[in-house]
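User: Here's a chain of 232 residues. Predict its fold as tokens.
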Amino acid sequence: MIQLIGVTKTYPNGVGALYDINLHVGKEEFMFIVGPSGAGKTTLLRMLYKEESPTMGEVIVDRVKVNNLTAEQVPYLRRNIGVVFQDYKLLPKRTVYENVAFALQVTGTPHFQVRRRVMQALELVALLRKANSFPDELSGGEKQRTCIARAIVNNPPILLADEPTGSLDPTTSWDIIQLLDKINKRNTTVLVATHNKSIVDGMKKRVVALEGGRMIRDQQLGAYSGERLSNA
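Assistant: Prediction complete.
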């Protein structure tokens, strides 16, 4: 599903973000990417939807060699990848419904399909009653649920979430991660970059740890800090 082969990213100013990353993520897998700020988590995710390109190495997503895509081909790649951002990136003058619908409208989805698919997405994230609300009328958790609905309304096979609980309280954070887990169980590959130790430890999923741009650990049933968790 996702493969990084010898991926290195060095910016023009000489700052290195990633070094020789080799990673394979299987279809319908749920994986956490952890590490301190500046470890390369966001850069790694951005490589997958070609917001960043590697200096060396190869990025393959669903058998597509992302490095080789032209600017005209990138939008087609992104239709298969939903992205959830920490800072929401919602359109402030559009309602929840309109924010989610926009993701379909820009791809030319027929009008009669838009309403059905938007309402299905809002139902999944438990936001039907907020469909006509504007972003400034929402709580942080509701904003993030709107972002998730927008990310999945195209039914992408891959969902990337960059610090999706970074600005949320512990209870709301857990609700958001449970929602991502539910989406994963609907046959979606999910990658989550996070600093949230309690969530990583509680979920017992695959954990890939980055430090200084290098992958230092890849562990099934992993924990944030490296110790293996039991199934008890």
